[in-house]
Every structure is written in C-alpha cells, then in structure tokens.
Amino acid sequence: MSTALEVEIERGRSRQQWVVRIFWFFIALLVLLCVAGAVYEAASERRDRQRFPQVGRSIDVGGFTLNLDCRGSGKPTVILESGLGIPAIGWQFVQPEIAKFARVCSYDRAGYGWSEAGPLPRTSREIALELHTLLRHAQITPPYILVGHSFGGFNIRLFNQLYPGEAAGFVFVDSSQEDQETMMSRAMLEANAKDLRELRRMSSVMGLLIDLGIARMGLSRTLGGQPVPPDLREELIYLELDRKYSEAILSELASFDDSAEEARGAGTLDDKPVIVLTAGAGGEVPGVPKQDADDFFAAWVGELQPRIAHLSTRSRQIVLLKSHHLIPFEQPGAIVDAVRNVANETRRQALPSRRRSP
Question: For the domain 57-193+233-348, what is the CATH code?
C-alpha cells in the first residue's frame, strides 16, 4: 500500500511531466510557425521578383548606385523627390502624366527601392549632393523643376542652396517645414519619439523579422489603411522588405532635426516660381489627443506652409481640401497641374533671353 508521501511524490512527478510536455509542445509549435513563416516569405519573395522588375536604370554615383527613371522630353526637366519612406514608385500616378508635356525623372534615394545603401547619416545635405551627382552622371542637364513631397521639401531646398543656378522652379507637396516641431504639443513630440524608439528596436532584428515573414505581415497591415491600390501596395511591400531600406529611413528620421536646420540655413528661393500644395483634410494622429492634432493641423495649414511660400516672391499656396498628407496617391492631378503651371512660367521667363540670342 502506497504511503501518502509516495502518492504526493507521484503527483509531483506527473505534474512535472505535463509541464515538460507542454513546454516542448509550445517549442514545436514555435518552430513550426517559424518554418511556415520562412517558407511563406521565400515563396512571396520569389513571386515578387518576377512580378516587379526594376523600373529605371542603375547609375554609379561614386561607390554605390542609385536607380533613376526618366520619361518624356523637353525642358526644363522635372525632378521628383519622394517623402520619407516612399520609394520612387510612389510617383506612379504623377510621373506618366507629367511625361506628356515635360521630361520627368524620379529616383530611389540611397537605401530605397532599387538603389544601393549610401553613406550615413542621411541628412538633406547628403541627399542633395547625391542627387546632383546622379543627374550629372546620367547627363540630365539643368534647368530643373524640383518637386518635393514631405521630407523631400527639405532636400530640394538644400539642392537649390548648393546649386542655385540649376533650379528654375519648385513644387512643394505638403512639405516638411523646419519650425514644425515648435508647433507640436508634448503628446505629439512624445508620440514621435516613441515611434523612433520602436523603429530602432525593430531595426536590430529586422533581418529575422523579414526572413520569418513577420515584417511582411506587419507592412501589409500598415499599408492596408493607406489610400494605395492593392497592386502598388504589394510592390511597395516588396521594395520595403530590405534591411538597407530600414537603415535608410531610420537614419533619415534620426537626422530629421539636422536636416531641418540645414533647410533653415538654405536661404530663400528669390523670385523663382513656387507652388505650395497643402493637404487640407486633416485627420487624427494615433496616440495624440484630438485637440492637439487639430491645433497642429491649423498651424500647419495657416502658418507653416505659408512660410514655405514666403521663400519666393513669386509663389502661391493651394490648399487641397479633399486630400490628406499622401497627395501623390490621393490627388496626383493637383501635382501634375502645379508642375505644368511652374513649367510654363519658367519657359515664359526664358523667352526674352532666347530672343536676344543670335
């Protein structure tokens, strides 16, 4: 007959066995999920490579290459500078329409899309230097009309400072402005800082997240809420699932304040024709009280964007009441019209000098 002690020992042994079995069950399940994720990612990458070939050509800019896609003909040439985190294909609803009346070039910044990684940090000055080298090596001669979306607005202002005789006109598409953080509430600043910390944490394991298909699922969820058509969304996901991409946008974000100061010191745009397109639809900011978001949006439309327009004596601001920040996807026609108007102005300016030519 078993003693009470023996029964208790047997029960303890049985509980330990169940704990061990449960532990190994979850280990096996985790391994199975990892294998399934890796197989899913490998199959998805193979499919995407066939569906989404490179658009453009790779140009050596001194130790690394940048992808450049030019279409159309005529002068001045329109240069499209993307917002932070958006490869050149983000202009796919804008570029073909501009190509009907002008030569227009989009490109992937270093680390984006089909371009190779470039030197760090990724400040606006560095980006402007690389863009100029790209255009020179590709034999795309000035004058240029520079179009900058969001963070791209800083970059084209630095380009103008470094090469003032080459930029003939500008279109700013809901462009970043160097004073914008002074208009943000504490909650907005803390939300931005939290996002940057999260991105840094993810970047340290990005390779693993990509290999296991976790990054793909996360991007699909994020882009699913954006005004992007399904085919373009899948191509964006394919191009963004790359360690060089995450390193590039992390550096651009971490260097944002430096780029803002560079833009502040870039000077004015004199009397060059400028159109400032401003998103007028507003919207909520995740993790930020609605009143804070509303206050910032009012300052964005009424104070910050006009400061960009005031950089030139020949400028105007157009508020797009139906568009949010992603104007290249939501109202591409407004960008096309703005570029056409600036191009016509620059051509009219050039007429007197041509008449004086022998």
Answer: 3.40.50.1820
